[in-house]
Amino acid sequence: MSEETMDRQVARPAPHVGPGRGAVGFPDPADHVRLRRGVAAALTASGVERVRERSRRMLGELVDEMLQDGPPADLCEAVLGPFPVAVICELMGVPAADRQGMHAWTRQILSPSHGAGAREKAEREMRGYFCDLIGLREGGTGEDVASLLGAAVGREEVTLDEAVGLAVLLQIEGETVTDICGRMFYVLLTRPELAERLRCAPEIRSRAVDELLRPLPHRAPAGLSRIAEADAMPARMEAELLVDALLDGVPGLRLAVPAEDVRFRKGPLIRGPEALPVTW
Questions:
Q1: What are phi and psi of 17, to 5 degrees?
Q2: In the 8-state DSSP scheme, what is residue 138?
Q3: Which residues pair with 14 in a beta bridge?
Q4: pLDDT, tens digit, for every residue of 238-252?
Q5: Would you list the DSSP string of 71-88?
Q6: What pTM was estimated for this model as a whole?
Q7: pLDDT tens by residue, 173-182
Q8: Cβ within 8 Å of residue 244, ≥6 positions away
Q9: Above 70 in pLDDT, residue 10?
Q10: Which comes out higher in pLDDT, residue 27 or 272?
């Protein structure tokens, strides 16, 4: 993307989604690198490893709760929805008590069905939240994104407005992993021979996750594209943990309805299963 798209008619995924002047996702390379530099440490392989064990424990608790409630269950509601929310909030430094509110804002922003007014209100409230959170951590030494952005603002490497815009973008992008993993598990649940092979050969799971994620587009809108030159580490970690937890922890996991009965969201920004009814 480039600032050349500003104030011009360009392809966009939906009428309410388009390049705005100053939008953090659109700067040309020099500014884009400057904005990303401050948070890169939290999103690279080493930064993601910092939260891997905590993420594994949170996922284990979600799977245990699903098993205790008994079948059938909606895999999206029980695991695939709350897990990415917990992970991105952990990476961002959002306290546990605030995570449900953050999730509600994100869904209002992403879903056109709520209307432009609700979307704009949710975005304002999320921006206000991150403005306060980053401001409180200015000059801090934490390793989460909010702390790193606060430190970058303190060093005058980015403005507070730029830091808030980047935090909002990362928070929203982090939650879209729900839909990516929903599509990935739809593939596994409709190809039980593949799931069984991964159960029996855990050593190939990492490569299998790469192959499962590769053909699944992130969102799938037209016109606002980037080509990744390195792995998107948080999403990959979450996918690996989910495959391990669900294949090992729920060995009889299977769809509870015919594959053709699984309904998919068809919005421009959210394209994943509405629900994945499963049993075991």
A1: -120, 115
A2: T
A3: 17
A4: 999 999 999 999 989
A5: SSEEHIIIIITHHHHHHH
A6: 0.82
A7: 888 888 899 9
A8: 202, 205
A9: no
A10: 272
DSSP letters spanning 67-131:
HHH-SSEEHIIIIITHHHHHHHHHHHT--GGGHHHHHHHHHHHH-GGGHHHHHHHHHHHHHHHHH
What is the Cα gyration radius of the chain?
Answer: 19
Residues 87 and 51: beta-carbon distance below 8 Å: yes
Residues 262 and 255: beta-carbon distance below 8 Å: yes
80-90 residue pLDDT tens: 999 999 999 99
Q: What contacts 28, CB < 8 A, 6 or more positions away?
A: 2, 3
Question: 78-137 pLDDT, tens per residue?
Answer: 999 999 999 999 999 999 999 999 999 998 988 777 788 999 999 999 999 999 999 998
Tokens 């580490």 -> residue: 233
Exposed / middle / buried, residue 153 (Cβ in 10 Å: 0-12, 13-18, 19+)? buried
Nearest to 173 by CA among 101, 233, 215, 245: 233
DSSP 141-176: --SSHHHHHHHHHHTTSS-HHHHHHHHHHHHHHHHT
- Structure tokens of 236? 């990959």
Structure tokens at 4: 């050349």
